[in-house]
Amino acid sequence: MPTNGLSSRMIQFLDPEDRNRVGIQTPFQRLALQMQDILGDGGILKDVLREGEGPLVPRDASISIHFSGFLEYSDQPFESTRSYKFPKMMKLGKDMTVWGLDLGLRTMRRGEFARFLIQPSYAYGEMGCPPLIPPLASVLYEVQVFDYLDSAQVDEFFALSPEEQNLAPLSTLLNVVNTERSFGNRCFNQSRYDDAKYRYKQAMTLLRNRKPEDEEERRHVEEASLPFLLNLSLAYFRLERPHKALKFGQRALQISPGNTKALFRCGQACLEMNEYEKAQEYLIMAQAKKPFDTDINNSLKKLANCYKEHLDQEKLMCSKMFSAFKSEN
């Protein structure tokens, strides 16, 4: 890069006008030459590093991303999600602090990796954000989109009153609770069991508040409730709250008697509470449905070991009590 005898260290302290006067291109200026102007005013430039698939991110989506933001002449990001164990889920139009990044994300697809060069008017403006962001700073974001969920319908539905929600078509309600389930499953897979439980319970509240018009609609609502009850049972089990896990497992059995997952959840919960006879009853019924299921059979083995230890402890206690009684006599 031509620097007219100036060191790169000195260049960063020159005003943009001074740089132009001496014919010096900054790193961001060089980068801009290979980027696409997505708005037509030069405010947000984009460079696709890896193409994505499918439709563009919807404007009201909740999006799973990793991103890092950089200032010019800095190798270290001023903000980044890369230290997180899992990609961050963020709501467009709400969670993004940089407007230009919010707009840029709407041009991306699932799996895409891109970078955006964002001018001050679409970033932190004339004032910047002291002490990290200086005034009139352009910023560079590297962004990877993993997945997204179109949550516009969910947002609109929750904005309705309970009466209006009840008047909405059943298909709308089912779409909303299925989206909530997707959010919950994502949280669960990231071991965020409290957040998963919250999503599942929100969906259950919507289903419980529904006033069915007829028997067929009542049946549809009941069927839609089953996976949430099973998921809640498992979430509470992972949260080490077996009493709650048993409660939701039993509610699932009321809807679907003989449901293998529900029987297994109840058996796991009873085993955790040291209720061995109940655990055996549930697990044997589950095994009868799926004789070769590894998880069920492993739980039965664990039950046998736990029960043996329990009996051995009782025998030892009785032996000590009997010995103490003999010594007193």
From TrEMBL:
One example GO MF annotation: peptidyl-prolyl cis-trans isomerase activity
Entry-linked SMART domains: TPR
Keyword Repeat: yes
Any Gene Ontology CC annotation: cytoplasm
EC number(s) reported in the record: 5.2.1.8
PANTHER family registered for this protein in UniProt: INACTIVE PEPTIDYL-PROLYL CIS-TRANS ISOMERASE FKBP6
Protein name: peptidylprolyl isomerase
